[in-house]
Amino acid sequence: MHMSDTWFREDFEHTGSSIGFRLTRKLDQVQSPFQKIEIYETTDWGNLMVIDGAVMLTTRDNFLYHEMMSHPALFTHPAPESVVIIGGGDCGTLREVLRHPGVRRAVQCDIDEQVTRMAEKYFPELCESNGDARAELLFDDGIAYMKNCAAGSLDVVIVDSTDPVGPAEGLFNRAFYESCLKALKPGGILVQQSESPLALVELMKDMRQAMRDAGFGAMKTLPFPQPCYPTGWWSCTLARKGEEGFDTFRSDDAAARPFATRYYTADVHRGALATPPYLAEALGD
Ligand code: AG3
Question: Domain total for the chain?
Protein backbone atom coordinates (compact mmCIF):
# COMPACT_ATOMS: atom_id res chain seq x y z
CA MET A 1 0.00 0.00 0.00
CA HIS A 2 1.16 3.51 -0.74
CA MET A 3 0.74 6.37 1.69
CA SER A 4 -0.90 8.58 -0.84
CA ASP A 5 -3.53 8.40 -3.49
CA THR A 6 -3.21 11.98 -4.62
CA TRP A 7 -2.06 12.31 -8.21
CA PHE A 8 -0.89 15.19 -10.37
CA ARG A 9 -2.05 14.78 -13.91
CA GLU A 10 -1.21 16.81 -16.98
CA ASP A 11 -4.00 16.53 -19.51
CA PHE A 12 -2.53 17.35 -22.88
CA GLU A 13 -5.36 18.67 -25.01
CA HIS A 14 -3.47 18.44 -28.32
CA THR A 15 -2.82 14.74 -27.94
CA GLY A 16 -5.94 13.62 -26.07
CA SER A 17 -3.77 11.95 -23.46
CA SER A 18 -2.38 12.49 -19.95
CA ILE A 19 0.75 11.83 -17.93
CA GLY A 20 0.47 11.56 -14.14
CA PHE A 21 2.49 11.12 -10.97
CA ARG A 22 1.49 9.94 -7.49
CA LEU A 23 2.29 12.66 -4.99
CA THR A 24 3.44 12.65 -1.42
CA ARG A 25 3.02 16.39 -0.87
CA LYS A 26 3.24 19.84 -2.38
CA LEU A 27 6.59 21.43 -1.58
CA ASP A 28 6.24 24.93 -3.00
CA GLN A 29 4.42 27.25 -5.32
CA VAL A 30 5.18 30.68 -6.73
CA GLN A 31 3.41 32.94 -9.15
CA SER A 32 6.19 34.74 -11.00
CA PRO A 33 5.52 37.72 -13.28
CA PHE A 34 5.52 35.20 -16.15
CA GLN A 35 4.02 31.94 -14.97
CA LYS A 36 2.89 29.73 -12.09
CA ILE A 37 5.58 27.34 -10.86
CA GLU A 38 4.66 24.40 -8.64
CA ILE A 39 6.93 21.85 -6.97
CA TYR A 40 5.69 18.47 -5.74
CA GLU A 41 7.31 15.52 -4.06
CA THR A 42 6.27 12.27 -5.73
CA THR A 43 6.25 8.70 -4.42
CA ASP A 44 8.46 7.29 -7.21
CA TRP A 45 9.90 10.07 -9.38
CA GLY A 46 11.60 12.38 -6.89
CA ASN A 47 10.63 16.03 -7.13
CA LEU A 48 8.40 17.34 -9.90
CA MET A 49 8.34 20.85 -11.38
CA VAL A 50 5.19 22.03 -13.11
CA ILE A 51 4.83 25.35 -14.97
CA ASP A 52 1.33 26.58 -15.81
CA GLY A 53 0.06 23.00 -15.48
CA ALA A 54 2.73 21.49 -17.80
CA VAL A 55 5.34 19.05 -16.48
CA MET A 56 8.85 20.48 -16.83
CA LEU A 57 10.93 17.82 -15.15
CA THR A 58 11.22 15.15 -12.50
CA THR A 59 14.34 14.18 -10.56
CA ARG A 60 14.19 10.68 -11.97
CA ASP A 61 13.96 11.15 -15.70
CA ASN A 62 15.31 14.62 -16.60
CA PHE A 63 18.70 13.14 -17.55
CA LEU A 64 17.18 11.74 -20.74
CA TYR A 65 16.11 15.16 -21.96
CA HIS A 66 19.09 17.17 -20.75
CA GLU A 67 21.67 14.77 -22.17
CA MET A 68 19.91 14.61 -25.55
CA MET A 69 19.49 18.39 -25.74
CA SER A 70 23.25 18.83 -25.32
CA HIS A 71 25.54 15.99 -26.30
CA PRO A 72 24.40 15.15 -29.87
CA ALA A 73 24.91 18.80 -30.91
CA LEU A 74 28.16 19.26 -29.01
CA PHE A 75 29.63 16.03 -30.38
CA THR A 76 28.52 16.95 -33.92
CA HIS A 77 30.12 20.40 -33.91
CA PRO A 78 33.86 20.01 -34.58
CA ALA A 79 34.96 22.23 -31.67
CA PRO A 80 32.16 23.93 -29.72
CA GLU A 81 33.53 26.75 -27.54
CA SER A 82 30.75 29.29 -27.23
CA VAL A 83 27.26 28.06 -26.30
CA VAL A 84 24.03 29.91 -25.51
CA ILE A 85 21.02 28.28 -23.86
CA ILE A 86 17.70 30.07 -24.25
CA GLY A 87 15.29 29.05 -21.48
CA GLY A 88 16.67 26.10 -19.51
CA GLY A 89 16.20 27.91 -16.20
CA ASP A 90 16.41 24.66 -14.23
CA CYS A 91 20.11 24.59 -15.26
CA GLY A 92 20.09 20.91 -16.30
CA THR A 93 21.13 21.65 -19.89
CA LEU A 94 23.80 24.07 -18.66
CA ARG A 95 25.29 21.37 -16.46
CA GLU A 96 25.55 18.96 -19.42
CA VAL A 97 27.08 21.62 -21.71
CA LEU A 98 29.73 22.46 -19.11
CA ARG A 99 30.82 18.81 -18.99
CA HIS A 100 32.55 19.45 -22.35
CA PRO A 101 36.08 20.62 -21.51
CA GLY A 102 36.37 22.50 -24.83
CA VAL A 103 33.46 24.81 -23.97
CA ARG A 104 34.88 28.18 -22.91
CA ARG A 105 31.66 30.11 -22.36
CA ALA A 106 28.09 28.98 -21.72
CA VAL A 107 25.38 31.61 -21.31
CA GLN A 108 21.95 30.61 -20.01
CA CYS A 109 19.24 33.19 -20.67
CA ASP A 110 15.87 32.41 -19.10
CA ILE A 111 13.18 35.05 -18.77
CA ASP A 112 12.12 33.80 -15.34
CA GLU A 113 14.57 33.93 -12.45
CA GLN A 114 12.09 32.06 -10.26
CA VAL A 115 12.62 28.86 -12.27
CA THR A 116 16.30 28.90 -11.32
CA ARG A 117 15.57 29.78 -7.69
CA MET A 118 13.19 26.81 -7.47
CA ALA A 119 15.71 24.51 -9.18
CA GLU A 120 18.46 25.55 -6.73
CA LYS A 121 16.18 24.53 -3.90
CA TYR A 122 14.47 21.41 -5.22
CA PHE A 123 16.85 20.14 -7.94
CA PRO A 124 20.25 21.17 -6.50
CA GLU A 125 22.08 18.48 -8.48
CA LEU A 126 21.15 20.27 -11.73
CA CYS A 127 22.65 23.51 -10.42
CA GLU A 128 25.95 22.06 -9.26
CA SER A 129 27.89 23.71 -12.13
CA ASN A 130 26.33 27.15 -11.82
CA GLY A 131 29.46 28.47 -10.12
CA ASP A 132 31.67 27.32 -13.00
CA ALA A 133 33.76 30.29 -14.22
CA ARG A 134 32.62 29.55 -17.81
CA ALA A 135 28.92 29.86 -16.92
CA GLU A 136 26.88 33.04 -17.09
CA LEU A 137 23.27 33.09 -15.87
CA LEU A 138 21.05 35.83 -17.27
CA PHE A 139 17.39 36.45 -16.48
CA ASP A 140 16.20 38.22 -19.54
CA ASP A 141 14.10 37.95 -22.68
CA GLY A 142 15.74 35.28 -24.87
CA ILE A 143 14.24 36.75 -28.05
CA ALA A 144 15.88 40.12 -27.41
CA TYR A 145 19.10 38.45 -26.25
CA MET A 146 19.47 36.52 -29.52
CA LYS A 147 18.55 39.58 -31.57
CA ASN A 148 21.33 41.60 -29.96
CA CYS A 149 23.95 38.84 -30.03
CA ALA A 150 27.09 39.70 -31.99
CA ALA A 151 26.92 38.23 -35.50
CA GLY A 152 28.97 35.08 -36.02
CA SER A 153 29.89 34.75 -32.35
CA LEU A 154 28.37 31.39 -31.32
CA ASP A 155 28.98 27.71 -32.03
CA VAL A 156 25.80 26.23 -30.57
CA VAL A 157 22.43 27.70 -29.51
CA ILE A 158 20.16 25.42 -27.46
CA VAL A 159 16.51 26.41 -27.10
CA ASP A 160 15.35 24.62 -23.94
CA SER A 161 11.88 26.08 -23.88
CA THR A 162 8.40 25.25 -22.70
CA ASP A 163 5.66 24.45 -25.24
CA PRO A 164 5.06 27.03 -28.00
CA VAL A 165 2.28 28.77 -26.07
CA GLY A 166 2.61 31.65 -23.58
CA PRO A 167 6.10 33.04 -22.94
CA ALA A 168 7.79 30.52 -25.28
CA GLU A 169 5.62 31.16 -28.34
CA GLY A 170 8.12 33.57 -29.87
CA LEU A 171 10.89 30.96 -29.67
CA PHE A 172 9.41 28.85 -32.47
CA ASN A 173 9.13 31.37 -35.30
CA ARG A 174 11.11 32.60 -38.27
CA ALA A 175 12.16 35.95 -36.76
CA PHE A 176 13.73 34.23 -33.74
CA TYR A 177 15.47 31.63 -35.91
CA GLU A 178 16.85 34.43 -38.10
CA SER A 179 18.47 35.95 -35.00
CA CYS A 180 19.92 32.54 -34.10
CA LEU A 181 21.29 32.05 -37.61
CA LYS A 182 22.95 35.46 -37.59
CA ALA A 183 24.52 34.86 -34.17
CA LEU A 184 25.97 31.48 -35.18
CA LYS A 185 29.33 31.05 -36.86
CA PRO A 186 29.36 29.15 -40.18
CA GLY A 187 28.75 25.47 -39.38
CA GLY A 188 27.10 26.45 -36.08
CA ILE A 189 24.22 24.37 -34.73
CA LEU A 190 20.80 25.31 -33.38
CA VAL A 191 19.04 22.80 -31.10
CA GLN A 192 15.34 23.20 -30.38
CA GLN A 193 13.25 21.00 -28.09
CA SER A 194 10.65 19.86 -30.62
CA GLU A 195 7.82 18.19 -28.69
CA SER A 196 6.30 14.73 -29.21
CA PRO A 197 7.53 12.99 -32.37
CA LEU A 198 4.37 10.93 -32.41
CA ALA A 199 1.54 13.32 -31.63
CA LEU A 200 2.93 16.71 -32.62
CA VAL A 201 4.41 16.09 -36.05
CA GLU A 202 2.42 18.97 -37.55
CA LEU A 203 3.92 21.40 -35.06
CA MET A 204 7.33 19.97 -35.85
CA LYS A 205 6.79 20.51 -39.56
CA ASP A 206 5.83 24.16 -39.02
CA MET A 207 8.86 24.66 -36.79
CA ARG A 208 11.19 23.16 -39.37
CA GLN A 209 9.65 25.26 -42.14
CA ALA A 210 10.31 28.36 -40.04
CA MET A 211 13.94 27.25 -39.60
CA ARG A 212 14.28 26.66 -43.33
CA ASP A 213 12.70 30.04 -44.13
CA ALA A 214 15.18 31.65 -41.76
CA GLY A 215 18.01 30.17 -43.81
CA PHE A 216 19.10 27.06 -41.91
CA GLY A 217 20.53 24.30 -44.11
CA ALA A 218 20.65 20.72 -42.89
CA MET A 219 18.15 19.57 -40.26
CA LYS A 220 17.61 16.44 -38.22
CA THR A 221 15.09 15.46 -35.55
CA LEU A 222 16.32 13.06 -32.86
CA PRO A 223 13.62 11.23 -30.90
CA PHE A 224 14.24 10.00 -27.35
CA PRO A 225 12.17 8.63 -24.47
CA GLN A 226 10.89 11.13 -21.91
CA PRO A 227 8.32 9.53 -19.61
CA CYS A 228 7.19 12.77 -17.95
CA TYR A 229 6.20 14.61 -21.16
CA PRO A 230 2.99 14.11 -23.16
CA THR A 231 3.03 10.69 -24.90
CA GLY A 232 6.23 9.76 -23.02
CA TRP A 233 8.25 10.28 -26.16
CA TRP A 234 10.02 13.51 -27.07
CA SER A 235 12.51 15.01 -29.52
CA CYS A 236 15.08 17.65 -30.25
CA THR A 237 15.69 19.11 -33.70
CA LEU A 238 19.17 20.10 -34.83
CA ALA A 239 19.61 22.70 -37.58
CA ARG A 240 22.84 23.82 -39.19
CA LYS A 241 24.15 27.10 -40.47
CA GLY A 242 25.36 25.51 -43.69
CA GLU A 243 24.62 22.35 -45.59
CA GLU A 244 26.77 19.90 -43.65
CA GLY A 245 24.44 17.20 -42.36
CA PHE A 246 24.19 15.37 -39.04
CA ASP A 247 24.98 11.82 -40.08
CA THR A 248 28.58 12.02 -38.98
CA PHE A 249 29.65 13.18 -35.57
CA ARG A 250 32.79 12.99 -33.41
CA SER A 251 31.97 9.42 -32.45
CA ASP A 252 35.45 8.63 -31.10
CA ASP A 253 35.30 11.67 -28.83
CA ALA A 254 31.76 10.69 -27.79
CA ALA A 255 32.92 7.16 -26.97
CA ALA A 256 35.94 8.49 -25.03
CA ARG A 257 34.03 11.32 -23.31
CA PRO A 258 35.74 12.38 -20.09
CA PHE A 259 32.48 12.50 -18.09
CA ALA A 260 29.73 10.11 -17.04
CA THR A 261 26.36 10.01 -18.77
CA ARG A 262 23.32 7.91 -17.95
CA TYR A 263 21.65 7.79 -21.36
CA TYR A 264 23.87 9.32 -24.01
CA THR A 265 26.55 7.18 -25.64
CA ALA A 266 28.00 7.16 -29.15
CA ASP A 267 25.73 4.20 -29.93
CA VAL A 268 22.62 5.90 -28.54
CA HIS A 269 23.52 8.93 -30.65
CA ARG A 270 23.84 6.73 -33.75
CA GLY A 271 20.53 5.05 -32.91
CA ALA A 272 18.75 8.40 -32.53
CA LEU A 273 19.89 9.31 -36.06
CA ALA A 274 17.92 6.35 -37.43
CA THR A 275 14.64 8.09 -38.20
CA PRO A 276 11.59 5.78 -38.11
CA PRO A 277 9.88 5.50 -41.53
CA TYR A 278 6.66 7.33 -40.59
CA LEU A 279 8.67 10.29 -39.28
CA ALA A 280 11.07 10.27 -42.22
CA GLU A 281 8.08 10.45 -44.52
CA ALA A 282 6.51 13.33 -42.62
CA LEU A 283 9.70 15.35 -42.19
CA GLY A 284 11.79 14.32 -45.15
CA ASP A 285 14.72 13.38 -42.87
N1 AG3 B 1 11.31 21.51 -21.23
C2 AG3 B 1 9.90 21.53 -21.35
C3 AG3 B 1 9.40 20.78 -22.56
C4 AG3 B 1 7.93 20.90 -22.76
C5 AG3 B 1 7.11 19.96 -21.92
N6 AG3 B 1 5.74 20.03 -22.30
C7 AG3 B 1 4.71 19.61 -21.57
N8 AG3 B 1 4.88 19.00 -20.43
N9 AG3 B 1 3.50 19.81 -22.01
C10 AG3 B 1 11.90 22.49 -20.39
C11 AG3 B 1 12.35 21.97 -19.05
C12 AG3 B 1 13.58 21.14 -19.06
N13 AG3 B 1 14.79 21.88 -18.91
Answer: 2
1 CA distance to ligand 1 middle (Å): 31
- Could you tell me the residue range of the domain that residue 26 belongs to? 2-58
What DSSP designation does 154 have? Answer: E
Q: What is the CATH number for 155?
A: 3.40.50.150
pTM above 0.90, yes or no: yes
Q: Note the residue count of the chain.
A: 285
10-residue mean pLDDT profile of the chain (285 residues): values are: 79 92 97 97 98 97 98 98 98 98 98 98 98 98 97 98 85 95 98 94 93 97 97 97 96 98 98 96 88
Closest atom of ligand 1 to CA, residue 65: 12
State the binding site for spermidine.
66, 90, 160-163
Give the closest residue to 250 by CA, choosing from 71, 96, 105: 71
**In a shared domain, residues 6 and 121:** no
